[in-house]
Amino acid sequence: MIDMSGLYSHKDYEEVLERFKVSSCRWSEFLDVHLEVAKYRCPICEISLREGELKSRVSRRGTTTIEPTIDPLSSKKYYRFLKCNPKNYI
């Protein structure tokens, strides 16, 4: 698991936070800062999130190709109150 505590001290965090607040809470405002802090890897599983990189996994059922994406983990339907909480996007 990648330590994301450096997010708050990132040189662009305050500017991004302000853009987030005036953008109707679009989480994508944080994307570049998150990727930089996480070194372009998923903070949880550490798989590469670089655009165009595909990962293949072989199992008994065959090979599965995964295209890495970033999307907030919270359910948009049930947790709408989290949308404008910037700490929800770590």
- How much of the polypeptide forms β-strand, as a percent range? 5-15%
**N- to C-terminal distance:** 12 Å
Number of strands: 2
Shape annotation = globular
Describe this structure in words.
It is a single chain. The chain is built from 2 helices and 2 strands. Strand 1 and strand 2 (about 60-65) form a beta hairpin. It has one domain (about 5-90). Strands 1-2 form a two-stranded antiparallel sheet. The protein is of the alpha+beta class and about 90 residues long.
List the helices and strands and how they pair.
Elements: H1 13-22, H2 31-37, E1 55-59, E2 62-66
Antiparallel strand pairs: 1-2
List key phrases describing it:
90 residues, alpha+beta, 2 helices, globular
In short:
This protein has 2 helices and 2 strands. It is an alpha+beta fold.
